[in-house]
Description:
By secondary structure, the protein is an all-alpha fold. Among the domains are: 114-230, Orthogonal Bundle (Cytochrome Bc1 Complex, Chain D, domain 2); 272-362, Cytochrome c-like domain (Cytochrome Bc1 Complex, Chain D, domain 2, Orthogonal Bundle). The chain is 46% helix and 2% strand. It has 14 helices and two strands, in the order ααααααααααααββαα. A two-stranded antiparallel sheet has the order 1-2. A hairpin with a 5-residue loop joins strand 1 and strand 2. The longest helix is centred in the N-terminal third of the chain and has 37 residues, at 24-60. The chain starts with 5 loop residues before the first helix and ends in a 5-residue tail after the last helix.
Amino acid sequence: MNSLTDSEKHSASNAFIKEIGGSNEHTEEIDSKITNRKQMTSSFFKSSFLVAITLLFISCRGEKFDHQPIHPNMNMDQQERFEAQEQNKFFADERGMRMPVEGTVSRGNLREDKAFYQGINEDSSFVEDIPANVTKSFLQRGREQYETYCTPCHGSAGDGQGIIMVGRYGYVPAPSFHIDRLRNIEDGYIYSTIANGIRNMPSYAHQIEVEDRWAIVSYVRALQRSQYVPENEMQQYDVDLANLKQQYQQEQEEQMAQQQAQAEGGGAEISAAKGKQIYEQNACQTCHSRDGSDGIGPTHLNIFEKTRQLADGSTVTADEEYLRESIVNPNAKMVEGYDPVMAPYSYLSDAEVQSLIEYMKTISDNQ
């Protein structure tokens, strides 16, 4: 016997219900239940299928694939070029990295404008002024770059009191931008210092673009200007100069009194051992050798009581007075053959300066 179709089964069920006295309402109710059951069954199978597919994909996550993926276009994976340090048998030395052809410059790197790219003139002297258009936005860019790269050492005000200097981490103290030497220095000198570094300050050529270096120079000049406005210009504004002078005088007197109290009171230690500790904490050995070799500054070996030839042609004996002055005001008497690049250590107390002198005596024959 052939099996009945769903439609034939449905018709037979309806006929049977009518034979036993059922109404059309009973028939419709049964039809509705059958339809709902079919829909629920269909929804169940669909949901089960989606869950199975999801579990299948999750189970593949993290599995290692041992075979090469199929790439219809292989030249994106295997490009005709050489990686850094890769062998190239085409050349006799088999080096893939080649020196530029002699007498050539890569496109975009000619940089023939020495003033802009190096901060120097044709005669190699530093340029006096910034070779760029200094605008408000240019100055603002300089401020952003200065605060990013310069404030840790030079401080927000350019006074050399950045967190690294105040913390005494053993670096050569950063100079204040508000001393006469740096106020009068050429713009090209500041640019060159940023690009090439000086003493233990590294070069920032890789971190700071050329134009941004000049922007920093412009901001340094703005800082200097803000701290050194001539009195005749200040008189143009509503400023109580007499009160400002009085406040400054009081601050100076308080600072001197504090330094004097620190030196005289509290029984501060003065010794060669303490001096050696201060010497190395402030990285004096970075510029001054202790073995007689030449450096950025003159050697400290046998310095005490030694006759020094100064840049102005005069001579001086390196006694305690001279050494003390050279520590707190190093540019007062410059030794011949050396540049005035040492930062002042005026923040040291008298006891600390004397300890430094006592230590320098120990590395001198004339102690």
